[in-house]
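>> received
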Amino acid sequence: MPKLDLSKVPVKTGSIYPEPYATMMKGRSSLRLGDAAGLTQFGANLVILEPGALSSLRHWHLNEDEFVMVTEGECVMVQDEGETVMRAGDCAGFPAGSTNGHHFLNRSDKVAKFLVVGTKAPREVATYSDHDFRIEIEGGKARFTYRDGTEWTGVR
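>> returned
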């Protein structure tokens, strides 16, 4: 496989979240590096956060490990126990099944970037710590539910 030309990797903006959560992802984009390299067993994404942006809703994964390394700028990692400033070179890992939800915020006035590497489980459930919201992914299709597993019809 030749070296990836990052200028040719499509930029994905936003998220798969339904409203009102989709709007909250303004200023977030990513490069799907693993997909561009043809990888199938794990994902590798370069997430780009404009000033004021957040990476996702605070969440945890049932079946997938996740590893993050800040590559540029500064962001704040938010978990159950509070906030941690993360700068270039700082890393964090989130084992599958750990219910300590996480996400990243860019409170600086400069762009922040971080690499996310995660397994690609055949079936995944992401639960959102601060919202009655969950995503089930199987066969590449997402299903939105409340935490109790009932079909999501909007914020209640």
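>> The CA atoms of residues 59 and 101 lie 4 Å apart.
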